[in-house]
Amino acid sequence: MDRTVRLWDLSTGKIVHELREHTHPVVDLEFSNANADRYLSFFTDEKNEATSEFDIDAAVQQAISAAATSGDPNQPQGGQFLLSASRDKTVCVWHVRTGKLIMQLTGHENWINRATFHPSGRYIITAADDFSIRVWDLLKRGRCILTIENAHDQFVSALDFNPLTPILATGSVDHTIRIWDCV
């Protein structure tokens, strides 16, 4: 298995970026939704280049006004960032246009199987072989704010959000699916 994420230009068939931060195989990828783009855009500068600077006050203000501008064509439409989950126990957040690493989430004690954006865009949720689910807050620079230990009796191998309601579903090699209310 490869440790590289490759971004391709489908019109030319050429590789645009090779993302090589992971030290073990990459097992999951997910592009950002429009709401996540709004939060993560604060990790880019005025030229849409990745940066380590982050204005928390501006991010909070943007989050407050996001609902009012959700139909605005000038607002991000999703897909500007990419999550990659790996067996190296990390999730990387990449800026798609530049291929730069925005942040790396660490804290799981075993392989990460799945990473997804919460529909609100503010959080990243991860599932791993340490039987846990973790919630990472983008407004806190990707800090883990919640760990659900023993979310299942075995490896947590799948997770997904219902796009219409605040419900998270997780699946496990213990042959169970659990439904979580995320209100």
Distance between the termini: 37 Å
Q: Strand order, main sheet: write it out.
A: 3-4-5-6
Unreliable stretches, pLDDT < 50, 5 or more residues? none
Number of helices: 2
Question: Cα-atom Rg, whole angstroms?
Answer: 16 Å
Instruction: Round the mean pLDDT to the nearest integer and report it.
Output: 86
**Secondary-structure element order, N to C:** EEEHHEEEEEEEEEE
Beta-strand segment tally? 13
Q: Give me the secondary-structure category.
A: mainly beta
Most strands sheet = 4 strands, antiparallel
The percent of residues in helical segments reads under 10%
Gross morphology = globular
Q: Beta-strand level of the residues, as a percent range?
A: 35-45%
